[in-house]
Amino acid sequence: MLVFDNVCKTFPDGTEALKGVSLVVPQGQFCVILGPSGAGKSTLLRMVNGLVQPSAGKVCVDGVPVEPATYARVRPRIGMIHQLFNLVQRSSVANNVLSGALPAVATWRALLYLYPPPFRAKACQMVYEVGLAEEHLRRRVSELSGGQQQRVGIARAFMLDPAVVLADEPVASLDPKTSRDVLALLKNESRERGATVLCSLHQIDLAREFADRIVALRGGEVAFDEPPAELEDAALRSIFGDYATGRLQPARASLRAAGDAA
Q1: Are 19 and 8 in contact (CB under 8 A)?
Q2: What topology does CATH give the domain 2-261?
Q3: Beta-strand runs (E) in 48-101
Q4: What beta strand segments (E) does 72-212 contain?
Q5: pLDDT (tens digit, 9 = 90+) per residue, 80-103?
Q6: pTM to 2 decimal places
Q7: Residue 202 C-alpha from the chain's centroid
Q8: Would 85 disulfide with which of 112, 149, 154, 180, CB 3.0-4.6 Å?
Q9: Distances from the Cα of 21 to the Cαs of 6, 74, 134, 202, 252, in angstroms?
Q10: CA angle, corner 184, sides to 165 and 219, nearest 5?
Q11: Residue-range domain boundaries for the chain
């Protein structure tokens, strides 16, 4: 279970990114954090693995507060999927996936790529599970498409069977069809393992389709927290104004175009 207890974050320049956010995300839930740029989505996610420390309040993973003294315990239980993949482009798919095991491997082993056999076997298994072939293991990541690279990112995130997966705008750079495939894969992998997913998105239609729960942020505060079926267009416009109008219609147009093409 993931708990945000009245968390606030004010950056040194005075920007208030989060203002007293309280959430409880149960085990196994696919929770989408929705909102425009600057709403506080990335800040909220990065508090879970300690990349951002709250100015007030606390974050707990399965009852353990996320703070410097507990990072060694908490971080191996958290996987991360990034918007721009955050992969080593010149390295192989296998080595990129294996890097997901870094919190559980001695530094000298990782530097020499001497990962223990169980981790190598797990990396091969994960590459297969995300829909890539054995031939991809030795290929450089730079040779893959964007969708394939994000599959590598998902495989890496699940290397240690995390309790929580953080996905920060994981499909922002992908086309609509590939975005759907990637989110479906992420949801399937998390369900099979009972992992909690906290996924930030801009795309309203994708949030409605894949989320178990949608939490909308506006100006660092929770503006909506309900199941997807409760997120009606009128509510979106009252919360987001022009953002909802600008994002909702193009997303639906893309869906219609994809359906026509199919």
Answers
A1: yes
A2: Rossmann fold (3.40.50)
A3: 56-61, 64-65, 78-81
A4: 78-81, 164-168, 196-201
A5: 999 888 899 999 999 999 999 988
A6: 0.86
A7: 13
A8: 149
A9: 5, 21, 44, 19, 30
A10: 55
A11: 2-261
